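Quick question: what would this complex look like in 3D?
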Amino acid sequence: MPRKLMKGNHAAVYGAILAGCQAYYGYPITPASEIAEAASLLFPKFGRTFLQAESEVAAINMVYGAAGCGLRVLTGSSGPGISLKMEGISYCAGSALPCVIVDIMRGGPGLGNIGPEQGDYNQVLKGGGHGNYKVIVLAPNSAQEMCDLTMLAFELADKYRNPVFVLTDGVIGQMMEAVELPEPVTELPDKSEWAVYGTADSRHLINSIYLDHDDLERWNRELMKKYEIIQKNEVRVEEYRIDDAEIVTIGYGSSSRVLRSAVDIARERGIKLGMLRPITLFPFPVDEIAELADRGLTGILTVEMSDGQLVDDVNLALRGKMISDLYNRMGGNVPTALEIVENVSELYGV
Amino acid sequence: MNENRKYPFSEIDPDICKGCGLCVASCPKGVLVISDKLNSKGFHFSEYVGEGCIGCGNCFYTCPEPSAVTVYLRNYVPEEVS
Amino acid sequence: MAQKTILRKPRGFIDVYKHKPGAEKDRTHYCPGCGHGILHKLIAEALEDFDIVDKTIVISPVGCSVFAYYYFHTGNLQVPHGRAPAVATSVSRANPDSVVISYQGDGDLAAIGGNNILQAANRGENMVVFFVNNAIYGMTGGQMAPTTLEGQITTTTPYGRNVKTDGYPIQVCEIINQLTAPVYVVRTSLHDMPNIRKTRAAVRKAISNARDKKGFSFVEVLSMCPSGWKMDSVPAQEWIKENMIPRFPLETFRDDSEDTPAIERPVPVMDPDEVKRILEYSALSDSNLEKNPDAAFEKVAVRIAGFGGQGIMSAGIALANVGMEYGYNVSWLPSYGPEMRGGTANCSVKIQSDTVGASECTEPNMVIAMNQPSLEKFEKILVPGGALIYNSTLIDIEPTRTDVEVYPIPITGIADELGNTRVQSMVSVGAFAAVTEMFDPGEIENLMTSLFKGKSDKVMKLNEKAVRKGYEYVKENFS
């Protein structure tokens, strides 16, 4: 397989190109600007569209338009920009439009800073925009996954006609790793049933208005059914040294990279630590986490770079059978492996 | 349609018309009037008085309802249109 | 040729308004005397006459015309408030042969969507914008619009619009006309028959511009809102004449359509083989060099630090690249956050056989310190037994650590002797290869073409030399 050393942010753009993404609409924001820059360099080489929109709001609406015309379309941003995009994302979900949004999370709230954080978890996973909808959320933790999961994001977006997030933080976006470039997709899905092409056969309507209350409720229930199917079929996790673990840590994105190192250090010290990493945040690995409660573990420690947003979902999944502890860093600080191991030792007396 | 009507003439669907009166105001010959009758929606609809239409099309273009007004012009030959 | 003999509902309209809820699928939702219906009819007629109903796409944002999709027998997108020009942009880019119509009211276009309309106009997108100016928010029940006239009473200006506090009615055509890209900018009115006919001509001109890919056409139409204005339809027409036209003069501000060439958009390359060719798959790294089984280091977590401009980042990237060529798992992470400031830079590189966990080297087994602050800062976090390479040209203090291997190397001095201090980062790469024994300097030299792609032979030769010198210095002084 041909390999290339590249930044996570660039790998996402390669993934998009390989997935047959035909248009990029975005607005600059640190630490996601490299996605727009890489797209501006690459997309024109393929005669595909790159446009720097006048605002985050315009960018997501351009995504809405391109998706409505049946294109695979990408945008990228970070926390404050994602907040601005939320209305448009709700419209995409409400109109069942497939699209991919990369969020390279930074520190917040407000202007915060440009350090790596995971504080967008709730805004992305718990609506953010208005109304009853969910988005599929993939959480890569390497440059390779930035490429692979971006490709997967397009596939899932089309499969379920739903917006898909690639949610990660500045560390994964900025770091360089060797990426094995996969084969480009050979066939794009047929969207002629609903997409608008400006032809007699494609006089379709892209719309999220349902004036009649019963009609809208019916549509809400259809969406709920779709989300149930996604929950059933699309959960993805990575487990590391979990089989004989007595303590399990849970984390995603760059903190899961640190957890892997922490597990190795702990094991050297004779502490049976393991890691469970959600690769999909929606669908959340509810069953996989619930199952941990039946193992007679000493403890479960959720490690996140946010204020307890992830641990809430972990505890919901545990259904009160166990309660996960929390170790978190914020403000742009990334936990270190030693910090985590020492915390584990202290918490569980090991 | 009444085959014996004299061309050109304006035909206004009494049920679709919302009685705004723009056509009446725009008619250069004053041959459109607001009816004393009400349609099913409770509007006093607009009516062609039966003669005097010159086929200018003003009533058609000034009417906000796409299908309320139809104007049959002088060279209209129903058999050939089919 | 068929002669048009009947003025009837144009074919640009859907026969039965199937998307409209309720029983009345044969009539619009618009109030009696509303200007929207008149403009709709002129558009639908033009689409039929030009035989372009099939290739037209109508964008309906929020406002009374949000339901325009009930009526037009075209592709339709209903979109968020104010965003029609943004959506129309990507729709037009996606379907360059289509005729894209953005149909907007005054609140939508001039208030919440003010920037979107300006930017789409400024890009000269191939689209027609119909801007219905009735000086009021109709759908939400008659609130103040950006175009509401001075003194006009609305539900949010119950004392009349006060220009001192609410600003002046915005003249949008005049603003659009300040931009270079638009081809056609015109303001017309629906207040009487001669002006409806002028509006008809403007509609046809604008739509034919989009059909001919001439770019951005903007048609502002002064229109009646009898419900919002709380008056009958005919007096509403009078009100336009008496009150709106003085503030919004009827004028063709610009018509460059004749002299404007058609916009051409590229055809996207989607063929997988062509995609791989453009991405230069064949040139990508595919060969794994043989690892040295007797290397002094089997895995490295190195922190490279120095002044900005010393090539810290590129030294790290070079190491990661070489590591990749040897089939190692590698990661490179630039310093992130406040430590970027203050003129110092550092990066973390990991080179190892097993999967890389944390990418930041918080407990490195090697530090390459290119200046004194870096030595002071990073020697502290070096693990016992690790290697400390430091730039003795610029650092005249001794390291405090005694439990690590220390390699003072005149890195900048060596580069200077080679004639260019900019290659000091490659001297450190050579030193790294010698200390770790992970890489053969000859192999590194072979990789110069891919590391310095696009650089001249001279530059590559110089860098090759720098690697060799760094390597030799270590071998000669520390074996």
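Answer marked as accepted. The CA atoms of residues 303 and 327 of chain A lie 5 Å apart.
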